[in-house]
Model the fold of this input.
Amino acid sequence: MARKVFISVLGTGPYSECTYSRDSFEFSTRYIQIATLKYFIEGPKNNDKWTDKDCAIFFLTQKAEDEQWNVGKSKLKNETVSLTGLKDELSNQHWPIEIKARHIEDGQNEKEIWSIFKTIYDEIRSEDELYFDITHAFRYLPMLLLTLINYSKFLKNVKLKSITYGNFMSKEDKKPIMDLTSISMLQDWTYAAGDYLNNGCVDSLTSLCKEEIKPILRETKGKDEAASKLNRFVELLQRVVDSFRTCRGIQIINATDLSRLKDAANNLDSTMIEPLNPIFEKIKKSLVYFDEKENLKNAYSAAKWCFDNKLYQQSATILQEFVVSFICKRNGIDIADDKLRECVNSAFAIKYQNLDESKWTIKEENKEKVKEILKDDLMDNLDLVKLFSTMTIVRNDYNHSGMRKDNPKTPSSIISNIDDCLKGFSKILFN
Done:
């Protein structure tokens, strides 16, 4: 089972007693760390028991150790007095968790700042569940800790459970323990959205839905409308992108999932974190070139989407099959009829090589259909025929990993050829 780890940087104070509150929980103490830990371990929303495998780690400079850990300097009637330090206050709680204190530098220069980073990082283990208190993380430390969280997620697969801040400067009698976890959540969603917009990858968005949205839906029995809409949108986005990745041409053209995705996009008016809204607006705009109704052009748009997201093999495959489908539609051929689709490929090869009928190497039963296709005005467009031939060469070279003696194409020429074909087909077929 994952270890729960509470992490806090101890300041130098002096600290006066106040009442901290969160939900229906209240506790009076000089130390926000005591109140926050008590909330997590004993509070009304504590669903996970803390055990002797869990721990609280306090990072302190020498001054913090002298003035707040071993003793607790406090203001009393404008006079500084020495009271019980955080070390003994923690012992008085009799919690089962391990308590650790680790020394850190003052952070007066870049070297010391990176030393603090390493000291905290070294205390984190793989798969830990982290609870950060940043109340006394002054100056650069909040930024350092946010960076540390993302760094640890990547290298140690940790899970951030909470970031809290005790607002002791509040004018209220009861000082709120503020939940700032959404700041880190926003970072995660921003990176995941960027992964989709820059690389066409939805996997990170899907993982975040599993980790952060589905627990909300379980807890609310599906009644959280914002969470439900976001989950639906990401699920459909994953389904549509998978159809692009796996070149599901008929599925793309029929637009069943695209239609559902567009509906989900229109319904997604807000998310659970307000700054996420414009990010998802940008994701929704990436769908503007797709038609929610059955439309052959969706296949072209999918090929262009794949190219823009560096899925070149998928782009080449979908693009060539789109052109074949386009000719099929013009000639009354069912685009799902693989035998008659081959007639279109044969017609292009005959036109490109300018073959006499005596030199055709096609099945006898296909000849009449090929002749019909060759009568199509589009088949007289030499630019179209040349582009189709280029696409055929590129696709074969790509699919066979360039394993041929006859000058296999370079990566740059493959990319350039696909780009030229995308532009050329668009100009010829869509004017």
Summary: The mean pLDDT is 93. The first helix runs from residue 32 to 42. The CA atoms of residues 246 and 314 lie 7 Å apart. The chain has three domains: 4-179, 181-295, 300-431.
